[in-house]
Design brief:
The protein has helices at about 5-30, 45-65, 75-80, 105-125, 140-160, 230-240, 250-260, 300-305, 315-325, 400; strands at about 185-190, 195, 215-220, 220-225, 270, 275-280, 285, 375-385, 410-415, 430, 440, 445-450. By secondary structure, it is of the alpha+beta class. It has a four-stranded mixed beta sheet with strand order 10-9-8-11. Strand 5 and strand 6 (about 275-280) form a beta hairpin. The longest helix has 25 residues, at about 5-30. The protein is globular, with a radius of gyration of 22 Å.
Length: about 450
């Protein structure tokens, strides 16, 4: 007999998955007719791929991977199986638009998968309390599908942002952009202390493989920006010729910058009227967005820090600034142990855009740092890798993390405005390559303690 807690968790996961599907459908409605074939980011597949990828991934995980069900469309299960994005310069070329199946077939496949998953999730629920399979216990395989769907919402949004205006449809209920001045930039002091990265497997109802394991790190005292670097500060770097100052860039970053002719953040535009920032659906004058966090690649963030005589924080330093306390306790969130809510930060797709960096004082860490969770993921100087004790326990997706333990991806922490609250947990780790500028990713500078 299943425990009541098992019943409640499985039912909650099924309800959350229905809500995630509804949001997925709403995001695809941002595309104008014909835009499914668009591929606004060369290192990403066209939108039509993601329309099929989300259901294919879900069925391959639950139906085929755990329950052993046969494929009902083996071609689609394979074609849309995995959304791994190629590294820059690897010669990847997507299939031409004519090679993809028609949208009507992909939508029919999606609907069939969802209906099958409703039945399959009930079977997972029935087995959750007695099956020895870790992926069945606590409905973990349903959480794999749910969180994968939520992560791709963010992917879809930053892809939509790169589309021309005539390929997008504006929702009727889009929130107004938040502007206005923020407090002057400050830094906060964080004393030396020990940080424990990672989580124990039984501590979380669900976590990805890279979240588990434990690493204790002794962190020396440091100072860190109290708020992320904002557009107004980064404009000083651009105006000072920071993109032409070779001494601030690593060799590989300089070669990328020159090869791609990058002279400003990818989300900025320059015209005779001045600088603007591209949001999901609008171009906003930069002076109206001057106190939003700047979104840049790791390479650009690192160069800016070097220009300021500083550096990016390590993952351990960022963790201590976010979750550490003067009395040695570790908080669940920067603000404490209360569940994430609208008063704590800009996440959960409530604003659909950045906000000024000091809008959420109730989200401050114990040291007074703001905006650590929400408004943009935060780059760290730490290469993405396994924690001690790492095990790729999701047997249906063994390469989720391990495929990127290559020294060419860097850890991001926190959350962006497009991150669902389900992913706002202390152990969650994001990662991207250093020359990928499309993510809603911000940063802050660190210096040794004075």
């Amino acid at each position: 007999m299943k425990a009541p807690a098992t019943d409640r968790r499985a039912e909650a996961l099924r309800q959350d998955l229905e809500r995630a599907w509804a949001r997925t459908d709403a995001l695809f409605e941002l595309l104008a007719p014909g835009a499914l074939a668009a591929r606004p980011i060369p290192l990403r597949q066209p939108f039509i791929f993601y329309l099929g990828h989300l259901p294919a991934f879900a069925w391959n995980q639950v139906g085929r991977g755990v329950l052993g069900r046969p494929a009902f469309d083996a071609l689609f299960d394979d074609v849309f199986a995995r959304g791994i994005d190629p590294m820059e310069g690897d010669g990847f070329r997507s299939a031409p638009p004519s090679a993809w199946p028609p949208a009507s077939r992909v939508l029919a496949y999606r609907d069939r998968v969802r209906e099958a998953l409703r039945a399959a999730s009930a079977e997972v629920e029935e087995r959750a309390g007695t099956d020895a399979d870790l992926l069945v216990q606590r409905g973990r395989i349903l959480a794999v599908v749910l969180e994968h769907e939520l992560m791709h919402h963010e992917t879809l949004l930053y892809m939509v942002q790169q589309l021309p205006a005539d390929q997008k449809v504006r929702p009727d209920d889009l929130p107004a952009l938040e502007q206005g001045p923020a407090a002057p930039p400050l830094s906060v002091a964080v004393p030396a202390g020990r940080v424990r990265l990672g989580a124990d497997f039984d501590d979380l109802p669900f976590g990805w493989d890279n979240e588990f394991g434990r690493l204790d790190v002794d962190v020396e005292a440091f100072t860190i920006d109290a708020t992320p670097v904002r557009n107004r500060e980064y404009l000083e770097f651009v105006s000072a010729g920071g993109y032409a100052r070779r001494e601030h860039w690593r060799d590989e970053d300089w070669a990328w910058r020159e090869g791609q002719a990058i002279v400003h953040p990818v989300m900025w535009r320059r015209s005779r009227r001045g600088w603007t920032q591209q949001t999901l659906l609008d171009e906003v004058p930069l002076d109206e967005a001057s106190d939003w966090p700047v979104y840049v690649s790791w390479a650009e963030a690192r160069a800016y820090c070097a220009w300021r005589g500083a550096r990016l924080p390590t993952e351990a330093e960022w963790h201590r600034a976010a979750y550490g306390t003067p009395d040695g306790r570790v908080r669940s969130y920067p603000w404490g142990d209360a569940a994430p809510s609208p008063r704590h930060g800009n996440f959960g797709l409530r604003h659909w855009a950045p906000t000024p960096v000091d809008r959420f004082p109730q989200g401050a860490s114990a040291w007074g740092a703001l905006d650590l969770v929400g408004n943009g993921w935060e780059w760290t100087a730490t290469a993405f890798g396994p924690l001690p004790g790492f095990t790729p326990y999701i047997r249906t997706y063994p390469g989720y993390s391990a495929d990127f333990f290559d020294g060419r991806h860097y850890v991001l922490r926190g959350a962006s405005w497009a991150t669902d609250e389900a992913l706002v947990r202390r152990s969650f780790r994001n990662w991207f390559q250093p020359h990928y500028p499309y993510v809603f990713a911000k940063f802050r500078c660190v210096r040794a303690a004075r």
